[in-house]
């Protein structure tokens, strides 16, 4: 069951789309991880630059303060250069910090406060500078502005330090996030790579497996194709395909051969095929084809074709509608050369006519045998009887012997004619089967032979036999012949005993029944205690006119058991004989359940 599910096309397609979706999800997730890693890296860089710019601002302020102090001490204007460049650099750093902190509200607020402090510090520096430039170092305003500037510088230092500490905390947090992303990303990428390799391996394995199956299927198809082509040649068949939508034909190679042409020697079109159809069948063939194209169906049609060498062939064709994998309708047809069948049928008809003539002759023979032949025989026996009555006293011993021989010969002639008539009637085909009481038929046979049975003091015992569908008069004749046979070949040392038994059997369990036509059979056995026979003659005793004993020892014509065999065969049954010299004989009959 799992193998069947895996071989379903919809499941393979589903697995393919799921795999594609998984790969897309993996790709998107990988891109997101890389993007997060890039953002973490960018945030680290931004935080680091922010700290650097804050350090620069403080450094520029210190440079400005150092330049101020140098000017105050030396009153040399060259010391004012650090002040001016520091101020300008501070502005550059502030501009850079505004860009770096554009998405950081806390940093923006701190920058505003720091800017105010720096502006105020610069204001104190300007005031102190004005007094120092004229040498009023003892002036109270100078001292006050210088002192306030120094205090404010300490405040700025604390403020910057706080901002740097805040940024360092943010830096540490981002560093942890970055480290975490940096650790997880390779692992994730490794897992993605591993999963991709697994998918690739599974896909590769599936492709290799499918390729092997396809290769094996192709080999089988090649073998099947060769087998089909050979079957077409042997069976004298050709295949063709009509594409309904495109109205095109495809002919197999053997269809060309059936037409007497080389394979693919002309374009497979309807018009080209019509060139081979017998002129007398052409109109009917066109109507059949028009009906085929209208209803997309072709039941069995028969027509003739004429090959280029002038040979006429009889064809039979049919077709069935089929949809290919693309959903296009096609008509798959097969054409068979039935020329041999037609010829065989004609031969069979001739033989049937001959057989019918022979049957008529046989009927005439039966009439002659039953009337014309028996009439002279009756006259011979009548005149012979009169001759005995009037002239017997005048005959010599040799004459009496000759008369007895003539009488015996005439009696045997009458028996032979009667048995032949009985055998010929058994061969007739008009057999009426009906359900009959077999026990009654057996009793009727015993009544017919009552005189012989009484004369021999014979004992006939039988168990109950159910009703069977048979030809009643033939079964009665069968029983009569078998009883007669047992009485004829009785032993002189004991009273004749005939035992008749019945049983229902399964054909497959009876080794003597070869190629049974029915699964169940009625088994009827006739066993006697007569002289028996050597079992090597078990088959020969059913042959017409065959006798195991001299005609002077036992009377008979050798036809009785042949009639028995013919009756059983008329019932599609079997009869077997089994004998033991001086012990007895057994005849086993198998009649099928009808």
TrEMBL record:
PROSITE patterns: HIS_KIN (PS50109), PAS (PS50112)
Keywords: Coiled coil, Kinase, Membrane, Phosphoprotein, Transferase, Transmembrane, Transmembrane helix
MF terms (GO), sorted A to Z: phosphorelay sensor kinase activity
Domain PAS: 240-296
Reaction equation(s) it catalyzes: ATP + protein L-histidine = ADP + protein N-phospho-L-histidine
Coiled-coil region list: 338-365
Transmembrane annotation, as ranges: 12-31, 187-205
EC numbers: 2.7.13.3
Domain Histidine kinase: 368-594
PANTHER family: PAC DOMAIN-CONTAINING PROTEIN, PHYTOCHROME-LIKE PROTEIN CPH1
Annotated protein name in UniProt: histidine kinase
